[in-house]
């Protein structure tokens, strides 16, 4: 259900204490997620930074917000600078502070400014867009628990798409927020120099074998995936290993409801 009207963000209520904040006007169709606890709120990623996501979170809660970073790519850290408490996996702390080495600003600006279908705010200029850089408040590691109050969130280190990529398991609701490890609509991209195909397949296998899940929320395209997609994931892991295809350059591989591109 959509209940906040905004020129850039689409807000949808997943349940009474969980919200998706989406940027459908950009070709990446990015989702961030706000999870309300009894004492704090957790914001999973902060979007593209084309517009100010804090304008939305301010309308949804008065609770102090902890930002949990699935990974340090620009479409997930765009509004990190609007928040005081930021968590990132320890392997990507340096990326957050110093940027990703080998990724030219010209490429970043080209990608952030193309194929936009909604009006952008006057403050956004792709020619001068600069990704967030700053020090995190805390670093995370596998199996850490971040609890905003009566809502334990378990951090699962799921490398592959990036070295410090994490998924977040909301144990009370059975929601798994998969970042860029698993989504539909476009291939899961694993062909960048900073990706590791072997780690990515291992991470897919890990989440496919989790129990008690009720819904999966990836960070792009379709909002909310049925858990039966994990059957496709299990088949993908098996087939990719049998075909010796888990390597850069092996191309596009499609499995039922999702695809992977190495």
Q: List unreliable stretches of 5+ residues.
A: none
The secondary-structure element order is EEEEHEEHHEEEEEEHEHEE
CATH architectural label: 4-Layer Sandwich
Which class of secondary structure composition applies to the elements? alpha/beta
How many strands, which pairing sense, and closed or not: the largest β-sheet? Answer: 7 strands, mixed
CATH class designation: Alpha Beta
The termini sit apart by 36 Å
Q: How many H/I helices? A: 5
Can you identify the CATH superfamily? Ribonuclease Z/Hydroxyacylglutathione hydrolase-like
- Count of DSSP E strands? 15
Mean pLDDT: 96
Write the layout of secondary structure elements.
Layout: E1 10-15, E2 18-23, E3 30-36, E4 41-44, H1 54-60, E5 65-68, E6 85-89, H2 93-98, H3 105-113, E7 138-140, E8 145-146, E9 153-157, E10 166-170, E11 175-179, E12 188-189, H4 197-208, E13 215-218, H5 229-242, E14 252-255, E15 258-261
Parallel strand pairs: 4-5, 5-6, 6-7, 11-13, 12-15
Antiparallel strand pairs: 1-2, 2-3, 3-4, 8-9, 9-10, 10-11, 14-15
Helix pairs in contact: 4-5
Describe the structure.
- The protein has helices spanning 54-60, 93-98, 105-113, 197-208, 229-242; strands at residues 10-15, 18-23, 30-36, 41-44, 65-68, 85-89, 138-140, 145-146, 153-157, 166-170, 175-179, 188-189, 215-218, 252-255, 258-261.
- Helix 4 (197-208) runs antiparallel to helix 5.
- It has a single domain (10-261), classed as Ribonuclease Z/Hydroxyacylglutathione hydrolase-like (Metallo-beta-lactamase, Chain A, 4-Layer Sandwich).
- Helix 1 (54-60) links the parallel strand 4 (41-44) and strand 5 (65-68).
- The protein is an alpha/beta fold.
- 40% of the residues are buried.
- The strands form three sheets. The chain has a seven-stranded mixed β-sheet with strand order 1-2-3-4-5-6-7, with no helix packed on it. A five-stranded mixed β-sheet has the order 8-9-10-11-13, with no helix packed on it.
- It is built from five helices and 15 strands.
